[in-house]
Amino acid sequence: MSGATLHTQHQPLLRSDSAETDATLPRPNPTRFSLPRWLPSLSRYLSPLIALLTWQAACSFGLLSTRLVASPLQIAHTGWSLLQDGSLMTNLEVSLLRAASGLSLALLAGTILALISGLSKLGEDIVDAPLQILRTLPVLALVPLFILWFGIGEAPKILLVALGSTFPVYLNLHKGIRSIDPKLLEMARTLRLSRLQTIRDVILPGALPDLLVGIRFAVGISWLMLVVAEQVNADNGIGHMMMDAQDFLRTDIIFVGLAVYGLFGLVSDQFVRFLEHRALIWQPAQRQGGRT
Amino acid sequence: MNVVTPLRPHTADHDVPAVSIRGLSRRFGDGPRILDRLDLDIREGEFVALLGRSGSGKSTLLRTLAGLDPVTEGSVSRPKDVSVVFQESRLLPWKRVWKNIVLGQPDATREHALRVLEEVGLSHRLDAWPLTLSGGESQRAALARALVREPLFLMLDEPFAALDALTRLRMQTLVSDLWQRHRSAVLLVTHDVDEALLLADRAVVLEEGRISLDLPISLPRPRRHADPQFERLRGTLLRALGVHDN
Ligand SMILES: Nc1ncnc2c1ncn2[C@@H]1O[C@H](COP(=O)(O)OP(=O)(O)OP(=O)(O)O)[C@@H](O)[C@H]1O
Ligand SMILES: [Mg+2]
Fold it and tell me: Which listed site, A173, A276, B84, B148, has its alpha carbon 20 to 30 Å from A164?
């Protein structure tokens, strides 16, 4: 039945599956030098570590100008002191709040729009075409307009995040709703489910795998939008902290900002994966992959 | 609501049609009439098997009866409480089996689900995810979902067609038992002449949009293939379907 299509359309599952087989299968060549069981996971971090050491060495021996590139130690030190004086946390909080507000708006708007266009032909005619046109527009080009319209408060930043991340939510959810097995919808009719029940019990859960993919994209985009919004006009936030540092040639602070962005990206991606895990527990492949 | 007690006492008035179809026609676009002024009655508690060649319109008729397709020509009267089981179980994969069973039944509890699942021998899979069920188990769950609604009219569209021969035999016995207990009117679409003869009170053959043969099956139950009467009816049905066995 519909099961086959339901779990092949979901790419991340396949990835976690293959990762697992890699780890459990014996090495094909027994004579090859083999690392202890816990080492393979460490060896993944070997090359970044070497890169870091090389970077540090290049700075220490004056091969790299510390005016252009701060050394890893310097960056770590700066990061620590920014944490100590609380400025990093304050800026991070501001940025996170903006990202979260924008994302929530995007989730709401994207879901409503996708429901409107996914559930009726008329809705699709009205909603889909304009969104497809808007989508091709680089949203960042709207920054000057947003500043003109909404001033320099929180509104333009949150709205920019919301606008950018609405598209992936909308597009993926719309696709998910459209690809729901019509037989299940028919079943809902023979069970005499109300429109609302059908949306809640059949349509939304059926489109959830796609929605989650959309959310993952949306999280990435939200951060991107925020970086730009905060660098163009803001007096707090991580982006602002980095722009400020540029004026004083503090590459170390800029790198701290980059590290925070990277870390946030990683954490939020893991979070969405965790959500996927919880929400898609009914897929057999998901449960097997659950051990990784 | 109590699932185990019969819906209608066995002494139900068998002359009242539960389902009555008059002059029903159906065509898709400008194509030929798939159903052509079709008449059919199904009495309360009667088990009717609907046979016919592939493409003869059996599913079309059933979908119309289920209210999935509109009645554009002719008239259909049927009880309000109907259930349908299709060839695929059509369980929602994201709801546990028992949640699927009580779907759309605000008053039904886990207990109700458990009781019908017991009837179809699936109580141990109450909390399973549908994608982990075997084909036969899925169809039993679909049957349970149909039964929990206590339908006065149950429609089955080739519910066992995708199952292996052994499982199919078990399912036929199960349906027979359930029907003896619940006594709802049943319309079973099947390609299997033996299945029709094992289960039904009456076999009807759909051909060129109409009922071309209406064959009462008055064999005593439980029925056996070895019965000479069974063989005779089998020949009649096969001939009506255009298959000639010597
Ligand atoms: N939605 C539709 N649009 C156009 N033609 C249709 C549609 N549904 C069914 N038909 C046609 O109507 C005819 C009857 O179809 P139906 O599904 O009722 O056959 P059936 O008797 O159930 O066949 P089978 O035994 O193979 O299931 C077929 O020729 C089919 O192509
Ligand atoms: Mg059919």
Answer: A276
Is B83 a pocket residue for ligand 1 (Cβ < 6 Å)? no
Residue B68 to residue A189, Cβ atoms within 8 A: yes
**What value of ipTM does the predicted structure carry?**
0.87
* Domain contains A2: no
Question: Does the residue A97 lie in any domain?
Answer: yes
CB contact, 8 Å: A125 with chain B? no
The whole-angstrom separation of Cα A181 and Cα B130 is 15
Summarised one tens digit per residue, pLDDT across range B90-141 is 999 999 999 999 999 988 899 999 999 999 999 999 999 999 999 999 999 9
**Is A148 within a domain?**
yes
* Contact by Cβ (8 Å): A255, A82: no
Q: What torsion do the CA atoms of B61, A5, B103, B162 make, to the nearest 10 degrees?
A: 50
Identify the helix (H) or strand (E) that includes residue A26. none
Pairwise CA distance, residues A105 & B168, whole Å? 52
Contact of A214 with chain B, judged by CB distance below 8 Å, is answered with no
H helix count then E strand count, chain A = 15, 0
pLDDT of residue B15: 65
Q: Are B12 and B44 in contact (CB under 8 A)?
A: yes
CATH number, domain with residue A151:
1.10.3720.10
Q: Which residues pair with B22 in a beta bridge?
A: B75
The minimal CB distance from B89 to the residues A1, A191, A281 is found for: A1
Give strand ranges (E) for B7-93.
Answer: 17-27, 33-43, 47-52, 73-77, 82-85
Q: Where are the domains of chain B?
A: 91-144
Size of interface A-B (CB pairs under 8 A): 60
For residue B69, the chain A residue with the least C-alpha distance is A186
Cα–Cα distance measured from residue A288 to residue A252, given in angstroms and rounded to the nearest whole number: 43
